[in-house]
Amino acid sequence: MSINIIIMNGRLAAAPESVKIGERTKTKFRMANKRRFKSQGETREIVTWVDVECWGPLAENVAEYCVKGQEVTVRGRLAIESWEDKEGNKRWSTKISGDDVIFGNKPREATEGATSSQGFSEAILKQAMESVGVLMSKGVTSEIAAAVTLEKINKS
């Protein structure tokens, strides 16, 4: 059995970009995932930039409702693509092929009276990881556990 599932939370680096391909819509965006930690008594931060691609009705909703700086939680699959550049060098790119996107807080400029999302990301991730862990310990596959967890988060 092969498992390929990823859940990541972060903020949009720019407005999503959409394009029609035949009858379907494809939307791409880049998100920043921040991890804070202490090292030698000093708080440090690492930012991981991740490209996300989604299709169909999800892509249309992301394009219509998401803005630069908005918090999102994405569930999907890790996709690695390879190609050759003009000089013949092998290149790779990694992205998330999104199956679900939970829309979080928009930046203060986008909505009046927005509140800080401090703690929101950690709460969602903690809840998601605990829920997935519990379900998987009961023999549920990771894909179903993640889907059930996202459904719970969406309803809360």
CATH superfamily: Nucleic acid-binding proteins
CATH topology: OB fold (Dihydrolipoamide Acetyltransferase, E2P)
Largest sheet: 5 strands, mixed, barrel
What is the 3D shape?
A: globular
Number of helices: 3
- In CATH terms, what is the architecture? Beta Barrel
Global mean pLDDT: 83
Domain count, please report it: 1
Gyration radius, rounded: 17 Å
How far apart the termini lie comes to 32 Å
Strand order of the largest sheet: 1-3-4-6-5
Number of strands: 6
- Which class best fits the helix and strand makeup? alpha+beta
Low-confidence stretches: 112-121
CATH class type: Mainly Beta
Name the beta content range. 35-45%
The H/E string reads: EEEEHEEHH
Structure overview:
With 156 residues, the protein is an alpha+beta fold. It has a single domain (6-115), classed as Nucleic acid-binding proteins (OB fold (Dihydrolipoamide Acetyltransferase, E2P), Beta Barrel), CATH 2.40.50.140. The chain is 27% helix and 45% strand. It contains three helices and six strands; from the N terminus they run E-E-E-E-H-E-E-H-H. A five-stranded mixed beta barrel has the order 1-3-4-6-5. Strand 2 and strand 3 form a beta hairpin. Helix 2 (120-137) packs across helix 3 (142-155). 20% of the residues are buried.
